[in-house]
Write a structure and sequence with these properties.
Elements: H1 9-15, E1 22-27, H2 38-47, E2 56-61, H3 71-79, E3 85-87, E4 113-120, H4 125-139, E5 143-150, E6 158-166, E7 179-184, E8 199-208, H5 222-230, E9 234-238, H6 240-246, H7 255-266, H8 271-286, H9 291-304, E10 309-311, H10 335-349, E11 384-388, H11 398-402, E12 408-413, H12 415-420, E13 428-429, E14 437-442, H13 452-456, E15 466-470, H14 471-474, H15 478-484, H16 491-497, H17 502-505, H18 524-534, E16 538-542, H19 546-550, E17 569-572, H20 578-606, H21 611-619, H22 624-638, H23 644-651, H24 653-656, E18 660-666, H25 667-673, H26 675-683, E19 689-694, E20 697-698, E21 704-705, H27 729-734, E22 740-744, H28 750-762, E23 767-772, H29 787-796, E24 803-805, E25 814-816, H30 826-831, H31 834-842, H32 844-872
Parallel strand pairs: 1-2, 2-3, 4-7, 7-8, 8-9, 16-17, 16-18, 18-19, 19-23, 22-23
Antiparallel strand pairs: 4-6, 5-6, 9-10, 11-15, 12-14, 13-14, 20-21, 22-24, 24-25
Helix pairs in contact: 4-7, 4-8, 7-9, 8-9, 18-28, 20-21, 20-26, 21-22, 31-32
Bound molecules: thiamine diphosphate and iron/sulfur cluster (SF4) (3 copies).
The site of one iron/sulfur cluster (SF4) has 14 residues, from α11.
């Protein structure tokens, strides 16, 4: 069936051979509650009254959750005669509907070359492979096919590119499991995944690594050595990091180098011709980024074509022992977490999740999974990580505040804790609290190497206290972090420095840690800070977008719990209905708490022994900051009571305390697709908090323009620069008069950020926070390590303004936190980002006009904000 609607009954019946006895219909859908899947029902209806009316019609499901559908599965469908309803692609050991699948079959035509590339998300491997496919498809008489398979990390995850080439048409719509060529672009994968084992006899394996010929043996696991020996694999190594540095591409942009090596090694196109075609393609792709970028790519292409080295497989590899994969069972943690990590997460992380049987998920049928599982991943993806030098540290905690991944933290150690620390842990006396030692610790294996911490570190006398060092040199320091993170949080330290300050907030455990966001992401530092302030009593409704991906990069969850087991409850419904979804969460809580409130009021009348604590709970009913402590006292006082009221209150103790209800989403959600719902929720007057991560594009789907995208920015759907300006969402919200509104920018004003977030949460009505969030889609020329510097520049030049509108502010409702901008730097700021710069290279006149319009709009906006001071403050 090629055309589903209208369903062509006649064409369908005509296509069936007269000998047909059994028909298996495969639906790529699942409609619980229906009498059959949709295509199956159409087929049944279509055959009524035809010569096939008496055929047996079987109904199967396939490809759900993007499961691969292989030739062996289709053979099983043909062999099936007894299962009227069946599934392929999963091992259903619960309802036993899945068919038994035979051995893998290769159905590609003779002479087809199958290649598989293992890359690290955002290292450019996928882009390079797309490019290779185009080069081969456009310049040879070969057929080409590519399929890209990813995990769910925004960056730093695993990417697998499956490429096929051949003289005959390729009709293999399934992944490659028998390859002629396999390339591993990240050496850390050697101990994590079975890659080489997919090569055919005599196949080629190319490994990107920093090891040389003499060192290589100690880094290759036994099972891989044996496979290479037994199957006569041609093994090559290449040092992409070194060439990347030498050619100016940088240590992480190894894609072009490896692509060039691939062309030489496979000989699909003659070497000289491949070199020329790759250079032409680089010119086309990077031309808009400037000539220097093109030149660097050309140098990488030249170097990559020759820089690989063949490794002769030693005879003793024949006897190498199987060492297994790196994902070993974890032992520290609650049973709930360990069960999930050991039974599900480890397998999925090893890229073997597709082999998990249905029964593995029996404890998660409601879709909920335990918090805090990202802490078990320890991905070790950074090239360089920060090294702390206490001598230059002024204990400002900026590093921790801006870290997108929660991988660098300040700790307060008692003398005893410092003495018991693993040998070599650095500390210094804590400023203002002489009984404590202060130490910055880095989770080396969770750091992404973004460099944001070192960038903001003020250090002392011009000397930074953080310096980025190669990860290999720092691995030994992981143990200090692991020790520190298990120590109790110091409430007196938080109290001394106040949790609503930049410094004080960082002594609280982030309840969002080690997310799968891109290195340097502008969104996560805000979310992390919110969890440090309210995470122990927080509910989050998350719109689909980057924040739903880094917020739950399946199989792991970065939202976590504190020592008491309290942490954010998080859920994602849809893109478009998120405000309503969060509102529903609030209404549900309110309904339960209103009922419990009546019970407590009754209790105050009835039971003198608990009157005081019950009254305290009632008095603080709507105040999140104090109602939690009052709840603890009330529950303790009721614990041993046997009356029905007390028993019911204790049974519902999780619902007693006032929660902090949050709605998270991006600008695509808030300004565009979810705007109607957002407006409805803001208008409700209810105590609910909305956080908009404003990247000025739909980031998660690759940078489409939203109504937040400013004039002149190039985005998808705005290839010639956006014609219209940014929507005034804060203005719309302020017009209600009873909505707390904050416009914030962490890198520009760290203290204003935490102040606004604390005010928004404390405000007893709806609050809207719009936070400027740099993103890889902006193409910041300085690199994402400088995302905070970019935020600061945005504020200084007037591209962004910080302000707060507090309906309870009396005669000072509106505060313009931004200083008078210096608009002279405005155009330079725009040119620092590819989203603005690129239009100038293609169409300078239009770019100039739009950039000037953009600046004029910002100038007008600032003038307007100044008028609001008079308007709202009287
Ligand atoms: C109704 C609907 N349309 C499209 C999508 C696909 N989609 C998923 S995330 C996303 C972009 C989200 O952008 P934004 O809200 O700005 O958040 P960001 O990714 O920038 O954080 C889109 C278009 C979807 N999930 N639902
Ligand atoms: S380099 Fe980036 S991820 Fe690593 S600790 Fe610093 S800010 Fe965090
Ligand atoms: S930012 Fe630098 S000076 Fe400040 S606490 Fe971190 S390491 Fe110390
Ligand atoms: S917002 Fe941008 S930087 Fe952050 S995770 Fe999404 S794409 Fe990456």
């Amino acid at each position: 069936v090629r055309l589903y609607r209208p369903f062509s009954k006649d064409a369908f019946v005509k296509a069936l051979p007269a000998t047909t006895k059994v028909i298996s219909v495969l639906d790529r859908t699942k409609e619980p509650g229906s009498i059959g899947e949709p295509l199956y029902l159409d087929v049944v209806a279509a055959l009524q009254g035809t010569q096939f009316a008496n055929c047996t019609i079987l109904s199967g499901r396939y490809g759900l959750g993007s499961k691969d559908t292989t030739p062996a599965q289709i053979v099983a469908v043909y062999q099936n005669v007894d299962k009227k309803r069946f599934t392929i692609g999963i091992d259903d050991d619960v309802t036993h509907l899945s068919l038994k699948i035979g051995p893998a079959l290769v159905t590609t035509p003779e002479g087809t070359v199958n290649c598989k590339f293992w890359g690290l998300g955002a290292d450019g491997t996928v882009g390079a492979n797309k490019n290779s496919i185009k080069i081969i498809g456009d310049n040879t008489d070969m057929y080409a096919q590519a399929y890209f398979d990813y995990d769910s990390k925004k960056s730093g995850g695993v990417t697998m590119s499956h490429l096929r080439f051949g003289k005959k048409p390729i009709k293999s719509t399934y992944l490659i499991h028998r390859a002629n060529f396999v390339a591993c672009h990240n050496p850390a994968y050697m101990t994590k995944f079975n890659m080489v084992q997919e090569l055919v006899d005599g196949g080629t394996f190319l490994l990107n690594c920093v090891w040389n010929k003499d060192e290589i043996a100690e880094h290759i696991p036994g099972q891989v050595k044996k496979y290479m020996y037994d199957h006569k694999i041609n093994f090559y190594i290449i040092n992409g990091v070194k060439i990347g540095i030498e050619t100016g591409m940088g240590p992480t942009r190894i894609n072009t180098i490896l692509q060039s090596a691939f062309f030489t090694l496979t000989g699909i196109i003659p070497k000289e011709e491949a070199n020329k075609l790759m250079k032409d393609a680089a010119q086309k792709t990077y031309g808009r980024k400037g000539e220097d970028v093109v030149k660097k790519n050309w140098a990488a292409i030249d170097a990559g074509a020759n820089a690989f080295e063949k490794i002769e497989i030693p005879a003793d590899w024949a006897n190498a022992q199987d060492e297994g994969l790196e994902f070993k069972d974890k032992t520290e943690g609650t049973k709930e977490v360990l069960d999930f990590v050991n039974n599900i997460q480890n397998k999925v992380s090893a890229q073997e999740g597709n082999s998990l049987p249905v029964s593995a998920f029996k404890d998660y049928v409601d879709g909920s999974t335990p918090s805090g599982t990202a802490a078990y991943e320890k991905r070790g993806i950074a090239v360089n990580v920060p090294q702390w030098n206490p001598d230059n540290c002024i204990q400002c905690n900026f590093c921790s505040y801006v870290c997108p991944h929660g991988a660098i933290r300040p700790f307060a150690f008692t003398a005893d804790e410092a003495a018991k620390a693993p040998e070599g842990m650095l500390t210094k006396p804590m400023t203002g609290m002489p009984d404590y030692k202060f130490g910055i610790q880095v989770s080396v294996l969770d750091c992404t190497g973004c460099g944001s911490c070192a960038n903001v570190c003020p250090g002392m006398k011009g000397e930074k206290a953080l310096e980025m060092k190669p990860i290999a040199e720092e691995l030994d320091r992981q143990k200090f972090f692991d020790y520190a993170v298990k120590l109790p949080e110091k409430d007196d330290v938080v109290a001394k420095f106040k949790e609503t300050t930049v410094k004080g907030s960082q002594f609280k455990k982030p309840l969002l840690e080690y997310s799968g966001a891109c290195p340097g992401c502008g969104e996560t530092p805000y979310a992390k800070l919110i969890t440090q302030l309210f995470g122990d009593r927080m509910y989050i409704a998350n719109a689909t977008g980057c924040s739903s991906i880094w917020g739950n990069s399946s199989p792991s969850t970065p939202y976590t719990v504190n020592a008491k087991g309290q942490g954010p409850a998080w859920d994602n419904s849809l893109f478009e209905d998120n405000a309503e979804f969060g509102y529903g969460m609030l209404l549900a809580q309110n309904a339960i708490r209103d009922r419990l409130k009546k019970e407590v009021e009754e209790l105050v009348e009835k039971d003198a022994s608990v009157k005081d604590v019950a009254q305290e709970w009632l008095d603080t009913f709507s105040v999140g900051a104090t109602n939690g402590a009052a709840t603890d006292k009330l529950v303790a006082a009721l614990a041993d009571k046997t009356d029905e009221l007390s028993k019911d209150l204790v049974k519902n103790k999780d619902f007693l305390a006032k929660k902090s209800q949050w709605i998270f989403g991006g600008d695509g959600w808030a300004y565009d697709i979810g705007f109607g719902g957002l407006d409805h929720v803001l208008a409700s007057g209810k105590d609910i908090n909305v956080m908009v991560f404003d990247t000025e594009v739909y980031s998660n789907t690759g940078g489409q323009s939203s109504k937040s995208t400013p004039t002149g920015a190039v985005a998808q759907f705005a290839a010639g620069g956006k014609d219209t300006g940014k929507k005034d969402l804060p203005g719309i919200a302020m017009s209600y008069g009873y909505v707390y509104v904050a416009h914030i920018n962490m890198g520009g004003d760290m203290q204003q950020t935490v102040k606004a977030i604390a005010e928004a949460e404390a405000y007893p009505g709806p609050s809207l926070i719009i936070a400027y969030a740099p993103c890889i889609n902006h193409g910041i020329k300085k690199g994402m390590a400088k995302a905070m510097t970019e935020e600061k520049l945005a504020l200084q030049t007037g591209y962004w303004n910080n302000f707060r509108f507090n309906p309870l502010g009396g005669d000072k409702k509106f505060t313009l936190d931004s200083k008078e901008p210096d608009f002279t730097g405005y155009q330079d700021f725009l040119k620092g980002e590819v989203r603005y710069l690129s239009l100038g290279l293609k169409n300078p006149e239009r770019a100039k006009a739009l950039d000037e319009k953009n600046q004029a709009e910002s100038q007008a906006r600032y003038e307007h904000l100044k008028k609001l001071i008079d308007l709202y403050n009287n």
